[in-house]
Amino acid sequence: MTDNTREVTSADLQSRSPAELSVYLRAQGWQLLHREGAVAFWTLPVGGADVEVLQPLDPDLRDYALRMGDAVTVLAAVEGRPTPEILRSIGAATWDVHTISLFPGEEEPGLISLEDGVWACESLEALLSAAAYPVFARQDRAVHPSRKLQGLAEFLRTVRMGPTLPGSYKLTVHTPVPPRLAEQLPLFEGDAAEEEPAERQVSLRLHAAVQAALEAADAALLTPDGLERFNAAVSRGVSANLCEALWGFGAGGRQSFEVSIALAAARPSSTPLPALRFRKDHLPVLREAAVELRARVPEENVAVMGEVVRLHRESPDAGEITLVGRLDDAEQLRRVWLTLAPEVYGDAVRAHSEMRRVSARGNLVRRGTRSYLTNVTDFTVLPGMGDE
User: This protein's superkingdom (predicted)?
Assistant: First the structure.
């Protein structure tokens, strides 16, 4: 056993399944020779000779961790990489791994302020949601609805946060990918190849959308039609939601960051996915693009439920109210401005005086830092606690 192997514990080796190892071996070009009982024999030509790996197939074996360690040691020697790194690669064989590298200038390597770390984690979920929406909705939109689609919500529940990695400050998130069990070839001449599963589509879409946003931000710094570049990139997955998520990684403009993706070995791809680096001067462009996209494209059919905190009317005509409440299923409280017809404004006055909650539905428009609900329908004063 080498010094590198001592960095790996028995528990680490025991946690790696036979399926993960076999997927990794196939992806690296190893060929299965034969199987004898609870052991499979794999071979790979290296430097004119055949190297052999013995794979344990039963994790309940007493010496399973030891045998897994022997296999990892051989792989580390063949690939010239440390055993902990090999073990991480085996564990990621059925996951697409997305890495966000943050570069906080005034922090020690591997550290980040609590506030910026929380902001980055929230932005990570927002980035995945923004990339996944077009896959599950089957359409591209400049502004995504607040309510998550059922398939999208189910997908996000399968995503896992990984450990931070050495370097500046690196967040990792793992998305599961089903293995490819056969070559992606058409069954008959003229048929199209099988479509990638939704999980892999999200990964590819994420990279394409982030790359498009980076190109649009670069163009906006050089040309006077900057926003038009973002509008044109909507078909590639760019949205206000995506721009807001990317801006969040920059901690309000204080740090640069990089987005990279390593596709699962269980579903190899020949498509190169270069790392995408955002500079500090890209961040104000991303924020302004998000604001402008939301201002131009209202979010349709949004429901808001909350309390009336402000009333304002200067004539017998329509009046303006301010609600503090939640949009659709969102947990965060938001302040929303509505303009109501005279006959409905009276209901809002009653709700305010009786401290009743109200609900309304309409199109959400962002203007600067404010959110307005326009084309309001279904304005309703909700029953109080003592009402039947």
Answer: Bacteria
